[in-house]
Fold:
Amino acid sequence: MNTIAQRNTSLAMTGLFSALVIAFCLAGIMQQDVHAATVKDNMPSGRQATAIVNGQYPASYFPNTELLGAAEMRITALGTGMPNQTKAAVSISYLVELGNGDKFLFDLGMGSMGNLFSLRPDFSKLDKVFASHLHIDHVGDFMGLHIGGWLSGRYTPIHIYGPTGSKPELGTKAFVEGMQKAYAWDLATRSGALPDKGAQIVVHEFDYKQENEIVYQQDGVTIRSWPAIHALDGSVSFGLEWKGLKYVFGGDTYPNKWYIKYATNADVASHEAFLPPKALAAYFGWDLGQAMWVSTRIHTEPQAFGKVMSAVKPRMAVGYHSVQSPENNAAIMDGVRKTYDGPLTLARDLMVINVTRETMKVRMATVDEYVLPPDVTEAYKKAPRSDEKHTSEYISSGKWKGYTPPPMPKK
Ligand SMILES: [Zn+2]
Ligand SMILES: [Zn+2]
Structure:
């Protein structure tokens, strides 16, 4: 070894030693912050998750690069738009991830699955959907998650928690049974080829009239529901409480007394901030009367949202349910600010809020359009599957003799 090489080696050793010392110090600082569960998540290869130290978050959120703290919540708006969705604003959905590894979906409106996939989540853990009501812009992608998640790592049943309706046929149970009937062919082709248990949908239907009653309680997480006022009976809001943090998901609602009562003291209170009547009329080509009815009687227009938040006083008010246009955004902000001057975020698709007792960080997620979900786990690969399905003799006899498929690999 020549002198220069020796010196380089010794510099490298000093560098390595310093790096180790820094790493140990950081490990000491981070220890209280790092939670165990994200580490246990099935992380996609090519990404290294690190802990956030002293509340110093990177400016952008790159999915799967940050460990949640032991008492930290991450809320991601997957969809914030309308039933006539656009690329920039798909229908309503929120993902809540906790430092204990739990993940919860609040609504799953159509189009939101694309944004969910773009985060490369561990699909084996995405097995709980809380439906505020059964409008397509809130549950349209439920079957998309059932099948798409089952194809991407979920090998256990999916659970949907949703309200009853004023008649049995208007409730969540009837919705799921109807979906299973509508997709009978799809489900029949996949069951057997995919893990058997992943085929199951478990419906937890609860009374839409219940007031702040428990819908879900496990591992220190409590989710309650209360009624909302929207179009027909059978719309609700949810409150999730964990480790002294509270997230409220409003669903769709006219300003109501239950939200004011039960969303109070929320860390993050989300509630629709619908297009004001004039903007809505132009958007749908409606006359002002119809737009006024929908915006101020079925939904909550921006000034009403502001009044609700002035009463609730959350650490962060989150408004959603609009389309992205400079004019509309300005109209919504103008309206809200006439009646509310507290902390405010008008949610956009893929907006991320990190919440701890001390910090509240709002950022945008930076995702790649072509990103793939993480590899499935060994447990998924080993989960029992029945035999694959085959076409009838009649259909099979139509196979073209001009092609012979390659031999099947030995088991
Ligand atoms: Zn609705
Ligand atoms: Zn809606």
